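G., before I forget:
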Amino acid sequence: MTGSLLATLLAAWRTPSGKAGFLLLSALVVFALLGPLVLPDPTAMPDLGAPAASPSLHHPFGTDGMSRDVLARVATGARISLSIAVIAVLLSLTIGTAVGLAAGFLGGVVDSLMMRVVDAALAVPRLFILLLLLVVWERMPIPVLILVIGATGWFGTSRLVRGEVLRLRSEGYLQAAQALGAGRLRTIFRHLLPNVTGVILVSATLSIGDVILLEAGLSYLGVGVQPPTPSWGVMVFDARNAMTTAPWTLFFPGVAVVVTVLATSLVSDALRAAFDPRSA
Amino acid sequence: MRVRSSMAGLLAVLVAASFAGPLAAQRDTQSGTISIVIGAEPTLPFPGLSLAKANMDVASLLFLPLARLGRQFITSDEKTYEPALARSWRRTDSLTLVFELDPRARWHDGKPVTPRDVIWSVNRSRDSTISPTYALLLRNIASVTATGEREVTFRFRQAYGDQIFDATAFAVPLPAHLLDTIPPDRLAASIYARQPVGNGPYRWGKLEAGRQLELNAVPDFFLGTPKLHRVVFLIVRAAEAQLNLVLDGTADAYEASLLPRQITPIVEQPSLDIKTQSSFSVGYLLFNQKAFGDRSTPHPILADRAVRQALLLGIDRQRLVRAVFGPYASVVDGPMGQATWIRRHTPKGPGYDPAAARRLLAAQGWRDSNGDGVLDKNGTKLSLRLSYPGTSTARVGMAEPIQAMLRQIGVEVELLRLDGPVWAERRAKGEFDIDFSQATLMPTPAGLVQSWSCASSGGGSNVGSICSPGFDEAYKEAARTGGRAAADRWRDAIGELQQDYPAVFLYSPAQALVVHRRYRNVSIRPDGTWTDLWRWSVDPSQRIARDQR
Amino acid sequence: MALVGRPLPTDRAGSALGGVLRWLIRRLLQAAATFAVVAVLLFVLMRLAPGDPLARLTDDRPVAPAERARLEAIFGLDQPIGTQLTKFLSAAARGDFGVSIEYYPLRVGELVQNRLGPSLLLGLTVLLVNVTLGVWLGVLQARRRGSRLDRWLTRISLAGYAAPSFWLALMLVSLFAIKWRILPAAQMTDPLLPTDAGWLTRAGDLLAHLVLPTVTLSVVTLAATMRYQRSAMLEVLRLDFVRAAYARGLDERTVIWRHAWRNALFPVLTLLGLWLPVLVSGAVFVESVFNWPGLGSLAAGAIATRDYPVLMATSLLVSGAVLLGGVLTDLAYQALDPRTRAG
């Protein structure tokens, strides 16, 4: 299994998109890990009252209206936003894949029931569920926030995975595997899972951007990351009125989101191509 | 990218060409249009029926009060008021005020304004089942009667300074001849509410739901013909869209709720101007003297007056307010906005003195026993939660510097940036340690009783359970006193309040108007932004297409 | 991708029609039941969530407790939540969602009615741009598979997809409306358009106002359509009848658009199921930035102020659309292959 995984990764790396994606993603991770160590304190307001300064050698991304270094804030925000994105998305992918596989494989009443629950869950705006948390936590700890975002984000994935399983089944793929004497679990893990990887990767790509922005919306409603900790989403929201005076405060955190989602998309494309050369 | 911009260019040309036609056609020297951004839809623009700002803004153009406060806003000085529906007024004794209605005053349907309208409206407002807020404000009025064809007499229950303010500010006349057949609780849903008939300089034009409201000038308005023939209110909710519409030229005027450091580039735009004016708003950090969410127990930290005093000394208010507001706000020492007439009589508060703050805390037994930079006492950390609404740019901007400043004196502040409705709910329930409040107050200092007196403690708007008997005593004395002589009494009352350190009074923001430069005679009022709009005009040499009739 | 399949087996669909119809009825009934559950769930969640719905009515002015009690009585907030729920459900069943709190005294039905048109206009415009451009580019990519053009189209569309719509909207406004002043910054129409303006002027004005919101929403959604179309087309191009068509000497244009594309269209159409919610709700953030008078900005305001009645009506609309979209997607699976009938 590890051998094939390594081979897949290597194959993915060899595609032009893959190289770009992997490099971008590693750059982001390095930036998030090392940036805050070498950059100024993102909460420091050394010159309170000075107007926001445009990008310069000293402050490559400029400063915001409170004289804080935007680059340092984007770097610290990267830690928060990336960890939320990665952990929450992994969590929701795991749950979503499990539910989708189970529903599609078992079929019948189980499938019907699970999908109706998913229907209902998809039809309730996620925001309402998350707002409820304010009743329980006055100031929500970040791990809880990540858990909850992950636990409420799997509905779409499960539907996609189930659809793919149904398709495979309709192509007689499962019957073939079982006719060859594969047990249930073996069928699921050796035959189904690798075949739904493409869908899962697409789902991951779609979710990463959503989750980063969801965190922003939540912070805005007081559920998410609280100041003085910066996150990309909050930076974008807070800078919306400074668009005309200090556009760099709006531009850079937004670009950080774009780069992250773009890098993930490129990597997932490359991985999908490596898993299933037909689709590339 | 290229596809997009050429498409946009084509459209722009198309639109520009279609406008060019009627522009030069006619010239009218007595016309002008203003488009004004407001933040919400005016669904009930009646004085006395709604407290929402959008409604009050529109109502101030449709309806006139009996008289208006003079420019100095001395609420207890009858001589400084300006005539409106009433041509004149006189005092017959300490309990009686007589207003004489202007014979030229007309409703928009042509009917004259009569004493009956005034009486009906005051009685409606005094009915506590219809409008509890106004009933409370008008509690000192004993009776209103017609004492002549155009004379209305107000009798008060006691002698006090603000009689004329109560009579004119809280019971703006509505057309009794149209309304007295509608049951009071049906008024809001009635047809009249959809097509208000007022008596002001502008009449109701057309409302396009969710988008805009057009008002038209009343040509024979008895105080003078409005110079702008058309007022268009653009209903724009999102702050960024409000600003953008002014910047792209769609809107002509906008009462800025943004911070000056964000609107400064507007000044650099040659077509726009910023006018400022002191306001009745005030922002302050309110200390909760009862425990977080429990009004039966004193607050473990903030019940101590010395701690509250130390927190005041530990905040560099001057620097904070300058940093966030630039020149567009004043540091205040009491709970009143800069436009309040007694502001000059407010005793000066103490300046920034972190050393004194540390000494005070040390004297109360607060020490940093574990070296983490935060003081503690008997195992309690000197840690407080500061809650504020995330939608208020000013408060968001100040919260983090406040946290940093208090850290210097060993106080840990946890920031709770909350969604507006959640913030309001928690505040009302007393679920806060320090609340970053901002209030727009009435012009009269008499309103202070609602938020700072022992009687109001823990209920209504005294959410911090503040009670200082010294203030209550002095307040009663001040409210009794009439004329300008009341100023000294108010000074005593505010002084008493300051001695209790119930809050850190921070700022009174300037009321800022962003307006196109082609208007002349521009003035706004803190007690009703657009009240004087009918006196504005367009400089004939700077007319643009939209100013044509 | 999930929905990429073979050309539509038209001949088989006829025999399976009765079965599909029965399946559809059952599926719709299930959706209706789910909808009812969701309605109750939404109502309860909303009341449990923190936030004072009356805060906005009085702005930042102090209010007497008696005034508060009066306002609570007007909106029925003083009653126990069970009573409120039954009252809401019985009224909602008759299509009455009550009176808005923020827009008091306007009724919710009237508000939603006013806002539906603009949302549909924007949604359909975006859909039109999205489908035409997405299909065209997707087919182009499939034809030039593996070329530099193919790769760059993918990357560019992905970058667009990656942009937060709210951020992208602000960026576009600051360039096109504020800096270069060639397009309006917000609103659906010019509020000061002369009353005697002709239809051409009005149409031009509306179009100009549509450009930026449409571009924003198209940029962030185009990638999905392109990718679906590209992979569907690739599948079809491999098939025998396409090869045969080439072999018969038909020119490429005819083969692609007459033969291949028609068969690759179906998977793209299933995307429409996902579009339904976007059509009715608009895009909350984008509508807000452009002050577009649609349901999205109405819903955004209702969340910000906890205007329960408006919030219920708009969320139920979206929920209904999501459920219906789910049924349509399943229907597409059915049409693809009746053997997937599982629910």
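Residues 147 and 249 of chain A are 29 Å apart (CA to CA). The interface with chain B takes residues 43, 45, 48-49, 51-52, 65-66, 134, 138-139, 219-223, 226-228, 238, 240-245 of chain A (CB under 8 Å).

More on Monday.
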